[in-house]
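One such given next:
>
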Amino acid sequence: MNRKVIITEDGSSSLLMQDWGETYHSVHGAVQETQHVYIENGLRFLFSQNKKEEYAVLEMGFGTGLTALLTALNAADALKKVNYTGIEAFPLTEREWKTLNYTDHLPTQETLLYKVHEAVWEKAIPLTPFFTLTKTQQRFETLCVEGTFDLIYFDVFGYKYQPELWTEAIFEQMKDLLYPGGILVTYACKAAVNKILKNLGFEVHKLKGPPGKREMTRAILVKK
């Protein structure tokens, strides 16, 4: 993979896919985008709506591990257990992830960041009393995941670059992986995608996007 570490506008790291000109996070800020889209409007919303002691979260696009790290921190703060599955076809190299500067923004979390990246693949690894991580290396097009989830972080590359990941077939898989009432959040708010989600039985909400983006999407699978 031809990619390099860059610094986004909030000072936090991301990766640039040099062949595409596409980044793993918003150039306006990796940490603030992740916090807004996936934590505030995903995980914390889930905690407020579904009063369980233990949750299952799936991330489509494990990438830099930033979303997993922030989820682990928020699970501990809320005293909620999270079983987290991250899907990634092309994991970062040790050289790449050691270049990320997330500990500058979360200075007490260097040990946890290293644990996230050093955790072996294809095995459930308890990283904290409230966070168990399973990283699995596979392509989204041939996704094979066991279990049912309360929340899905849909964080694949944009429609322009990978339209095959924004199809009805993919979102039907996402539906099948969610509990009734389960939540899918994504940075995207494309009309064609939201129409697919509605047709599949999701209640679709357009929300204010992170800095640099007007809107994002939260979709809730309607209970029957």
